[in-house]
Each structure stands twice: as structure tokens, then as C-alpha cells.
Write a structure and sequence with these properties.
The chain has eleven helices and twelve strands. By secondary structure, the chain is of the alpha/beta class. Strands 4-3-5-7-1-8-12-11-9-10 form a ten-stranded mixed sheet, with helices on both faces. It has a two-stranded antiparallel sheet with strand order 2-6. Helix 2 packs across helix 5. The model has no long low-confidence stretch (mean pLDDT 94). Pfam families: ketoacyl-synt (PF00109). This is 3-oxoacyl-ACP synthase. GO terms for molecular function: 3-oxoacyl-[acyl-carrier-protein] synthase activity.
């Protein structure tokens, strides 16, 4: 039974200019708002214009990020496609229902309905590359990406597949922003990128993005890192978080001090960032701490952006200053831990090692 799981390539479309794999946060995109949209690449370079006009934002972003990942891995096809998403193509669902009401249930085109399901992205990618293998979509709130990653890890470990395309995608939907702002899950007032993590207010700045990775049990020249282990925990008390993380690291033959850094999911929600602050002054106080959601915004699969970040750090050996949360030195890190949670639930841990 092979246990090695390698990340052989990456692709990303996000609030930052991440669609160009040759760059790594060279130019930071600033914003001020309660929601922020992804920087669009030139979709004509990836998708025929006639087809792109009919596609939802999430599908277009995923077409770009998945094609970039496949190209970097030197592949035309894979054994499986696994995608995690919290909202899927909710925007097209909303448009279909609106058209249904506006047109009195008559003269409706089927496109928006067809594209409204959560598995549209995985299906669309499979059709484009002619992949007839395992095709699955996980809709598990803020652990949707981690669920997809875990599925891929198990398949590779059990030799059920050799090359798997794993993705994470979510898009900004206006109705979702309005309703979640009403229940104070999204901030009431616009916040700038520079201030969001120290805003001291309830709620988050909502974002979007698509992040794809080719995972394999075989290392190749383009390989970024090795996935050592991961863990998902639905419910943990604040007192249990620290001990759970410690046990997770130790069962992988290391201690907290052996980590070169930890990537934390702080999102600026004053009610729930306390978990990260407590860890920062206790369990993680002696290791470099990095943050990322001020760059990406918060969404169900934002941890996919953290996964992309970790792999870019490994490949370049550099840590951009905008990611630094404390002043401890970090140079050419070889082992990073990603820790994320949302509103005190669905905690996830991902341990990566540079190849």
C-alpha cells in the first residue's frame, strides 16, 4: 500500500493575480468592501468566447485553474476528478428562479438550470478533457476542499488511481452576500484589505476563487510537496483545539517546534478569530505564523488558497511579507501546517512537506 501523495502541479484564480504560475504575489490587489471578486484572466485564451458567455463565473475560473494545473503536470487526462464547493453554481440557480418568476414560468432556456447543480464544475472539466473516470463533488461547507483532498489521498494510498485532479471553487453571489450580511456573518460596513484582520467587528469579507491541483503517488520534476497527513474535526471546544493539533503533529513523528511555520485561517470576525489568537500566544508562539484570508476573502473553499500558498512557498523558498502574522524568521521552509475553521466548527489540519 503506497502512502506517498505528491502535489505535482497547481493552478489558481483568486482575488489576487494568481492565474500566472510564474509569479507569486508580486503585485497585491487591494480592495475595500464587504465582498470582493476574483481577478479575471483573459478567458478567451482558455475557453471559446461563445461558450464562455454561457458559463457561470465558477465554471470559467475552474476551466482556467484546472487547465493550468494539467499543463504544468504535463497531462492531457487523469484517472479521477474530485471537486469541493460550498455553494456550487448558486448564481445560476438564483438566475433560473428569477427568470422563472419574471417570465411566469414560460419561455425558459435550460442553460441556467443545467448549470445550477453543484457538480457542474467537475462534469464540465471531465467533458472538456474526455475523462470517463471517477467524478465526484463534495459539498461539505468549509471542509469541502479538505473532503476532496482526503478522498484523493485514500484513492492514491490504495492504488485505486495514479493521477487525480483535485479542486476547490466558490463564487460570489449577490443574494448570498445580502442574506449573510443580514445575519451578521458578513460585515455591515466595507473594510479594506489592510484592516480586515484587525477590524474588531463581526462577520467576514466574502470572496471567491478556484484552485486546482494534480495529486499523484509518483513524484515528477514539477512536484511541489508531499501531503503527509490531514485531519477533519466537526466539533471541538476551544480547550480541545490545542491538544488536537499537538496530537496530530506528534502522530506524524514531529513536535510543534519541528514545524517551519503554520498557516492560519484568521478572517477578521472578532467573535471567532479568538481561536487563532489563543493558539498564536500559546501553542504556536515559538513558530512563524502566516495568514491569508485578507488576500483571498473568506468562502467555503478558501483553504484551497492556503494550499496553493503553501506549495508556492515551497517552490520559491520565499514568504511574502503580506503573509506574516508574527516577527519570527522564516526562510526556505520545508514543513508547513495549515489550520482552518469557520465560526468555531469544521476544524481542518493539513500537513505538507517540501519535495
Amino acid at each position: 500500500m503506497k502512502k506517498e501523495v505528491y502535489i505535482n502541479s497547481i493552478g489558481s484564480v483568486s482575488v489576487q493575480k494568481t492565474f500566472n504560475n510564474s509569479e507569486f504575489l508580486n503585485e497585491i490587489v487591494d480592495y475595500e468592501g464587504i465582498s470582493v471578486k476574483a481577478v479575471d484572466p483573459n478567458y478567451k485564451e482558455y475557453i471559446p468566447p461563445a461558450a464562455a458567455r454561457r458559463m457561470a463565473k465558477g465554471i470559467k475560473m475552474s476551466a482556467v485553474s484546472s487547465q493550468n494545473a494539467m499543463k504544468e503536470a504535463g497531462l492531457e487526462n487523469v484517472d479521477a476528478i474530485i471537486v469541493g464547493t460550498g455553494l456550487g453554481c448558486l448564481g445560476d440557480s438564483e438566475k433560473f428562479v428569477r427568470d422563472l418568476l419574471d417570465n411566469d414560468e414560460q419561455y425558459l432556456t435550460p442553460t441556467k438550470f443545467i448549470q445550477s447543480s453543484h457538480n457542474t464544475v467537475a462534469g464540465s472539466i471531465a467533458l472538456d478533457m474526455g475523462c470517463k473516470g471517477y467524478n465526484f463533488t463534495y459539498v461539505h461547507s468549509n471542509i469541502s476542499f479538505e473532503s476532496s483532498l482526503w478522498d484523493a489521498k485514500l484513492q492514491l494510498a490504495n492504488n485505486e488511481a495514479e493521477k487525480i485532479l483535485v479542486g476547490a471553487v466558490d463564487e460570489v453571489v449577490d443574494h448570498h452576500v445580502i442574506t449573510h450580511q443580514f445575519i451578521e456573518h458578513i460585515k455591515k460596513e466595507p473594510v479594506s484589505m489592510r484592516d480586515v484582520l484587525n477590524s474588531g467587528t463581526k462577520g467576514i469579507v466574502f470572496g471567491e476563487g478556484s484552485h486546482f491541483f494534480v495529486l499523484s503517488n509518483k513524484k515528477q520534476q514539477s512536484t511541489y510537496s508531499k501531503l503527509l497527513d490531514m485531519g477533519i474535526y466537526n466539533t471541538l471546544s476551544n480547550d480541545e483545539v490545542s491538544e488536537t493539533i499537538r496530537h496530530f503533529v506528534e502522530k506524524n513523528g514531529a513536535s510543534i517546534k519541528d514545524l517551519d511555520g503554520v498557516i492560519l485561517g484568521n478572517n477578521g470576525d472578532v467573535e471567532h478569530d479568538t481561536i487563532y489568537h489563543e493558539l498564536g500566544t500559546s501553542l504556536f508562539h515559538e513558530i512563524p505564523q502566516l495568514v491569508y484570508k485578507h488576500l483571498s476573502g473568506e468562502y467555503d473553499t478558501a483553504s484551497g488558497f492556503a494550499f496553493w500558498l503553501a506549495n508556492k512557498i515551497f517552490k520559491t523558498g520565499k514568504v511574502p511579507e503580506t503573509l506574516r502574522w508574527n516577527d519570527l524568521p522564516i526562510n526556505n521552509p520545508k514543513r508547513l501546517l495549515i489550520y482552518n475553521q469557520y465560526r468555531g466548527k469544521n476544524h481542518s489540519l493539513v500537513l505538507l512537506e517540501k519535495c
